[in-house]
Every structure is written in C-alpha cells, then in structure tokens.
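Name: Recombinase
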Amino acid sequence: MEDKEKKNAVSAGDNLTDYMETVIADLEKEGKFPAAHVYRSVLRSFTRFWNASAPMRDDPTSMSNVLAPIRDVFTPERLKEYETWLTECECSPNTISTYMRTLQAVYNRWMPPGMVNHNPILFKELYTKVESRTKRALTAGQMRQLETTEFCALSLPQQRVLACFMLMFMLRGMPFIDLAHLRKQNLQGRRIVYRRHKTGKLMVVDVPPDAFRLLQKYRNRAESEYLFPILNEASPGKERYHLYQDTLRRFNRELARLMKKLLPGVSVSSYTARHTWATLAYHSGTPLGLISQSLGHSSIRVTMGYLKPFDAEVIDKVNRQVIALVKGSKKKKVDSINMLYGTLLR
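Structure predicted for Recombinase:
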C-alpha cells in the first residue's frame, strides 16, 4: 500500500491527462473496464472545460489545447468552475456527481489521505450525492401482467428477452451484467452462487420454482461456459467488455420494443427489474438492511438512493391522512404507516 501511494504521489509538474491515462491503463490491466470507461469520459470532459476556459484564466500564457497541471486542477476554485461549467452544459445531477466523485478518486490516488498536503474537505462544497430522481420501477400489477404473458404468442427472441427480464426480477433483482456473465458452474442445484461483477461480493441466490422453470427452458444448450445464450465466447479483456456493451444496448432495444406491445407507454430498461424488486420489497415493509443485503449493495446508502423517489408517495399519503383528520371526515379504514421503515402497510 505504501509503495502504491508513493507511486501515485507525483510531482507538482505532472498534468492531469498523463496522470489519468496512467490510472486508466492500470484499471484496464486489472480488468476494471467499466471504471476505465468512466475515467476516460471524465478526462475528455475536463479537457473540454480546460480548453474552453483558457482565455478566462489569470495566467496570460494560458491557451487552448494545453495540458492542465494537476495542482491547478485540484483547487476549490477550479473544481467549482468545472461543476458550474457542467451545469451550464445541461449535464444531469447524477452525471455531475459521477464526474466529481471520479475526480475525487483521482485526487485521493494522487494525494493519498494522510499525506501532509492532502485536503480532506476539497470536495465538501461540490455535488457528489448519489440519488435517483425518477421512478424506474414497475408496479406489482404491471409485473403480474408480464408474468401472465402467453410466451407462445411471442417470437423466440421476444420470449428470451422477457425470460431474462423476469429472471432478473425473480433472482432478487440481479443486474443484467451478472445474469449475462453467469457460468454453468454457478448453478449449483437450486442455487446460483456467483460474485457480483461490480463489487466482487459473493452472492448465494435461491432459485424459486417459477424462475427455475424459465432457467431450464431458456438456458444455453450450446457447448459454452455461459449459463444463458446472451454472450458469445470472446477474447478476454477490453474486447469482451466492448462486446458486452453492444449486447446490453441490443437487449435494451429489444426489451423496449417488446414493452411497447406488453406495457404501452411504460419506459422499461434492463435495470427496471432490479429497481422493481427493491421497490416492491420496500413497500411490503421489508427492512432496508435486508433489501441492501439481498441486492448485494456495498452499503445501505446505495439502497436508499434507489428508493428515495418513492418517499414522496408515503409523505403524500400521510398528508392526506392528516388533512382527513382535520376535516373530520367520516370514519373509514385508512392505510397505516410503518413508522420504522416509512412504508405503507396494506
């Protein structure tokens, strides 16, 4: 760890581009291609900001297409300017948060906590929250409608898409990337034992009877290591990551077309299954910690980001109940609120 910190604690003359390219190369060597993709996006974005703001900097020698000295990047003023620029470019709050958290990770590599010049509050005034601002879940009724769909009325490709979506839901909101990368050896009897692609966390998931029937019908019958016919055998490394990205885009296109037929007017993506599982568990009164553990989240904070948009529903319900009490409306059965978890008790 000490050697790594010395390696990353570079001299004042280094520029952001060269340093981040080194970090990106390290991430790719470790097989962390999604993270490397985000880092590269942040670097491109900051480079555009740096070039666009060159005429406004105090340094008279500042010009566009000049590499940003890393010490000039990690100052409260410069980072705030970048955040403002992202806002003016109409980036979403979650995009801004992702970019700022990525720069924070780069800063901590370059100037590790504990070093004399490390500033622990450098990002305090910047937007680094992780939250979901829109609903991305289906209702129980909509899931029931999908569950009762006549598969025989669909084409085989449509059947596979719907089967994958339902399996992601029934396997505790399994992400598409984990479903796609499941190996046949991960299926151990009626359980799936695997490590989350994103965090490496060990997951042991019981396969319910309905899910097992879908699994058996649509599993990969070819001579392949993969449990489902989603990914083809591919070269390891970056090529496999790019192939997965292409597969994900294709799956979401096919899923969107299918949902136009099954749930007209409802926006659905591969991640909807995961959000739906979390949301329905939340509204059934399941403890937040148990939901977090079931999803394989690194912390309850991540789970809360999933569910925050639905707090408003509970608050609105409480508001109507309070108004009804004040108005002295006639007695009727009123939904009660689980005060510990803030969910509706039906």
